[in-house]
Amino acid sequence: MSEENKVQEPAPPKMPWEEKPVPPQPQDAREHPLVRELESAVPGAVVEAVEFAGQVSVVVGLEQLMAVLSALKGLGYKFLVDLTAVDWKDRPEGRFDVVYWLHRHADSARLRVKVRVADGVEVPTTVELWPTANWMEREVFDMFGIYFANHPNLERILTWEGFSGHPLRKDFPIEGVDTGAAVYPDIYPPGGGPVKPKGGA
Fold first, then answer.
1. 150 and 167 Cβ atoms separated by less than 8 Å
2. Rounded CA gap, 72 and 95, in Å?
3. pTM of the model as a whole
């Protein structure tokens, strides 16, 4: 049989997916090298440290936030990947997490820094450390209503001035709010809007 007429052997079957996949579990990360490096720079700053799915997160106190972030910038975390927030509406130790995700190009290290804040408590701006924080903080303000002290221009960025509420808060109505009268005052009367009243045509 010539080489070109030989029948190719079928490829071996692929291994089946785990019947019961084992999800990753959070692990204490206080002894992780990235956490120990931060603790050496700002002793006592880390309230909690967790490694989950290969990612390290630390919780720090609001009073030490700027010292921690400044130290991390000095340790080479020059890229602010993201700045966002999470709403834990009924959490006693502070409703919101403000989250900073930092990257160090020298060794591709990434560290997530969280600070817990109560509703109405201001968080210091980080615009002087990372200019890209400007629009990120505006988005957090717009979506969650968290204020950043000394921000150069803390205005809404995804909604508009006069918008009622903050859409990513857990108590924001999932059906949204009717703001048609504010957006289209020449079409919709005050109190009216694109949402038709019940029983309407």
1. no
2. 25
3. 0.80
